[in-house]
Please model this.
Amino acid sequence: MRKTHTKEIIFAISSVILLIIITIGVSLAVFTYSRAGSQSNTISTGTITFTYSEDSNGIELVNAIPMTDTAGKVLIASEEDQGVIQGYFDFSVSATMSSSVPIVYEIYGTVESESTMDSNYIKTYLTNVDGSDETPVEGYNGQEVPVYGSLVAATSNPTGKRLYTDTFTSSTTKNFRLRLWVASSYTTTDVSNKFIMRVNVATIDE
Amino acid sequence: MKNDSSKQILLSVLGVAILVVAVVGVSFAAFTYTGKGSVENTIKTGTIKVVYNEGEKGISITNAMPVSDTIGKTIEAEDAKGSGSLAEGGDTGVFDFNVEATIVGTVSINYDVIAVKQAGSDLEEQYAKLYLEKASSDAFTDKTEAKAPTVFSELDDVSSASTTAGQGAGSSAKLLTTGTFTTTKTDYYRLRMWVDENYDVGETSKTFTVKVDVYADVQ
Model:
């Protein structure tokens, strides 16, 4: 009898323990969910190719004498009697874009350290060339052609001077022509001065 | 004479012992009772169901250009307008999905929304920006920011996920947001992606693709 009672007690305790274990186990395993997405979400970037091409011949004026804006605007390739070896500098800026997002760029000049000429006497004249048509760009279509020293500092290079800024909204090529001459207000002395400038192009945020 | 006396004592003691044992044994065996209960004690389980529903279309933007967060947050669903793309048509600017729970009983369910970068993505993670809105209906009239615009590389690691399965989502996965259900309810989400404004567009097009996974378990 005692053995039976003991067995009953042991059985009862074991059952309770088992029930507790089952209860906890069931609680832990009662719910999980996972689902991997099937939709792909994709972005592909656009492309931009920006090119600045220079003509091989830069402006070269030797023994340059002061001249009026009227004369300077029409300097051609070679006018040796006016000391013009090369009267203008041609270059182009191209953009190939896969998107219509506007790209702002600036054309700016940087003066070489060997320059001795006061830039306030260097007339700067920029035109857009389309075939045989040549049109002054904005800032150069006024009555007086600006001197280099009066141009604003370039955004992309504060030591340079902004010649022009424009925006591309599609793939295109723009051709430019730059002329430089000595302002008529310059007083020629017995000292020869020189002015050496490079043209640069950069995209900017504006 | 002495022998007879001892025998009698022994017999007496034995008899008493037997009597005690008999009484105890009888005591143990003398009484049993069984009472059958009439009151039913019932357990009925509650129910839990969670479903992740994806929209018909995922985000698809081609020729995307870098845009600011201000612009990116308003990319339109149709033609992905505002993404800097040419928007020639066919582009989809948003990915809508929802997580719905059906609960009977008292229980709290956690869930994780996880973005998994897909193989073949060659746009650097620091230039792919993700933005998640949450609303109580698919009209998104009461939308809130579930995840502010964040580049993929800076999204929370899945170790911060609220579910065990979410925490094991893998090295290509990032946590977008977590949520909790305590009652039958549906949470609606809208995902946008764009090219971060600091990306330098070059001559080569790059791609970034994610899929969205959902994990849930009981708190």
Observations:
- Chain B has one domain: 48-218.
